[in-house]
């Protein structure tokens, strides 16, 4: 049986951004579904409309696609707590080119687009919160694109480790290298150089 602790993670996160009422809390528990997934499970497939927006209580998740050479390219790594999906496609109900995969065992809360619309209609607070979540996702992607263009490989790695130190212990280096826009061998050289 799922404990209220899973919901509490989300409610605590939301409370840092908006002021929740008892009604908002009840709506959260009504519309967000708790789920567990095992390591290496693909929870959203490419070429389909994303079914859910996921809140990561624990575990690590990535977005990835296959390039023309058939190599996996990791475009997003999620470090809990936080939301993940192919945001634009989820929001617009369009097909995504990316898979969503659990890198580790994951505890998640998920909500469909239809239920997210309902909860936002019934709760102005959750509507504000969902807008903030999507704005943060856009800002994150803009920052990431800027950093890929302006920072050296070493600087990108150092910033990632400074912000998310646990990532190195849970996410395979090949995924981290791909996410940072480099080959695994380059990442290995950087790690040896800086002694991490």
UniProtKB/TrEMBL annotation:
Protein name, entry field: CRP-like cAMP-binding protein
CDD domains: CAP_ED
InterPro entries with a match to the protein in the record: cNMP-bd_dom, cNMP-bd_dom_sf, RmlC-like_jellyroll
Superkingdom of the organism of origin: Bacteria
Residue ranges occupied by any Cyclic nucleotide-binding domain in the UniProt entry: 36-122
Lineage of origin: Bacteria, Pseudomonadati, Bacteroidota, Sphingobacteriia, Sphingobacteriales
Gene3D superfamilies, A to Z: Jelly Rolls
């Amino acid at each position: 049986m799922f404990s209220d602790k899973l919901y509490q993670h989300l409610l605590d996160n939301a409370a840092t951004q908006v002021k929740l009422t008892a009604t908002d809390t009840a709506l959260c528990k009504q519309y967000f579904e708790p789920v567990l997934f095992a390591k290496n499970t693909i929870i959203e497939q490419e070429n389909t409309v994303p079914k859910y927006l996921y809140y990561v209580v624990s575990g690590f998740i990535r977005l990835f696609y296959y390039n023309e050479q058939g190599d996996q390219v990791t475009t997003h790594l999620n470090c809990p707590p936080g939301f993940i999906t192919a945001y634009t496609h989820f929001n617009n109900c369009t097909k995504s080119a990316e898979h969503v995969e659990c890198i580790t065992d994951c505890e998640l809360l998920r909500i469909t687009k239809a239920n997210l619309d309902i909860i936002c209609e019934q709760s102005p607070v959750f509507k504000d919160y969902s807008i903030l979540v999507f704005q943060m996702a856009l800002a994150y992607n803009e920052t990431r694109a800027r950093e890929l263009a302006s920072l050296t490989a070493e600087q990108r790695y150092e910033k990632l480790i400074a912000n998310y130190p646990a990532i190195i212990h849970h996410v395979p280096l090949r995924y981290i290298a791909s996410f940072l826009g480099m080959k695994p061998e380059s990442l290995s050289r950087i790690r040896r150089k800086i002694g991490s």
